[in-house]
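wait is this the right file?? whatever heres the structure
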């Protein structure tokens, strides 16, 4: 019996100890070896472990406590962590701690994310090199230099997923100063330069906030906001999709007076019309779709919002109100509902693919 326990523990510790054979450049590639590895990892996961890949809480000021995160990691209820606020030294310590815990419980590696936009990184991760705010940059060279500096910092910490760049236009006061929209003609070329430089450092870049936050009135942290009629900023996304951005973040913005993509009073983050019909099918985006924080007031009052977002087609729930309860509810539906199970499995495999490229 003693031998069997030791053997089982050894298997747990080595099950997911793959070498880093892939990079972010492989994510969209026709790569049978990567496809096979995704299936291999997926098939080793139990239902609850598959669901966990879709859940990403936050740690740090305004995030969940270390105690809660520790519990969810031990119970295999989450698949990544947003390092929300803290020092660079604290971020490094968190990554080291949770890497070790994942090894001990036999979980696959995490996606570690950050809001490391040029306008936010020095506030979100103190002790990092100072870079200009996005709205104060004047050349593409400055953008590339900032993306390089930020990505090198993230590499040092162990963060492999950056929620940047903001590709919204500038009029909205909440997001306008965080992107390159002060010079409208620069939004796409500068955003693409940021994406290319970020992913060159094997960090996932994220274009946000789909379908467009720049022309709306209001702050989705505080309330549901609306786009009436034409979604003018959707045109910003085909060029970044063509540039192989690996992730797009969905905002908590309702769309009304739009015949094809009306969200019926719900935020885009829980709308099949926006997530699947528009972004997946019409724009042919094949990368990771992540929600904006699910604890924001633009979505948090919706019943079963976590399940609705997955049904809409998202891959990762960012900052659900309670990651443990979200995991339980999604797992219960996963077991009983075949159509929902297929959505979770598809999202899980997409997350595993990204992890094999940046985390293993």
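ok assuming it is, sequence goes like this
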């Amino acid at each position: 019996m003693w031998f069997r326990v030791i053997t089982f523990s050894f298997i747990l510790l080595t099950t997911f100890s793959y070498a880093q054979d892939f990079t972010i450049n492989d994510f969209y590639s026709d790569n049978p070896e990567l496809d096979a590895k995704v299936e291999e990892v997926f098939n080793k996961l139990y239902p609850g472990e598959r669901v966990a890949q879709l859940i990403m809480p936050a740690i740090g000021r305004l995030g969940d406590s270390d105690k809660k995160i520790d519990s969810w990691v031990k119970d295999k209820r989450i698949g990544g962590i947003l390092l929300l606020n803290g020092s660079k030294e604290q971020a490094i310590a968190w990554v080291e701690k949770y890497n070790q815990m994942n090894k001990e419980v036999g979980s696959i590696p995490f996606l570690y994310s950050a809001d490391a936009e040029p306008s936010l990184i020095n506030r979100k991760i103190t002790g990092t090199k100072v870079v200009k705010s996005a709205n104060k940059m004047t050349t593409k060279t400055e953008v590339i230099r900032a993306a390089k500096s930020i990505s090198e910092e993230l590499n040092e910490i162990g963060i492999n997923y950056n929620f940047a760049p903001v590709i919204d236009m500038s009029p909205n006061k909440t997001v306008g100063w965080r992107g390159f929209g002060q010079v409208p003609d620069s939004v796409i070329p500068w955003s693409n330069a940021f994406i290319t430089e970020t992913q060159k450092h094997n960090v996932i870049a994220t274009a946000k906030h789909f379908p467009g936050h720049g022309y709306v009135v209001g702050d989705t942290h505080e309330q549901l906001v609306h786009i009436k009629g034409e979604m003018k900023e959707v045109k910003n996304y085909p060029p970044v999709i063509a540039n192989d951005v690996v992730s797009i973040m969905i905002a908590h913005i309702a769309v009304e007076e739009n015949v094809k993509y009306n969200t019926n009073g719900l935020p885009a983050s829980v709308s099949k019309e926006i997530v699947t019909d528009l972004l997946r099918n019409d724009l042919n985006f094949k990368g990771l779709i992540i929600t904006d924080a699910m604890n924001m007031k633009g979505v948090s009052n919706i019943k079963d919002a976590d399940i609705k977002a997955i049904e809409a087609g998202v891959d990762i729930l960012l900052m659900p109100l309670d990651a443990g309860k979200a995991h339980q509810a999604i797992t219960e539906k996963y077991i009983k509902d075949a159509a929902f199970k297929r959505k979770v499995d598809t999202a899980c495999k997409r997350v595993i693919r990204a992890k094999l490229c940046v985390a293993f």
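The first helix runs from residue 2 to 14. so i think its the right one actually
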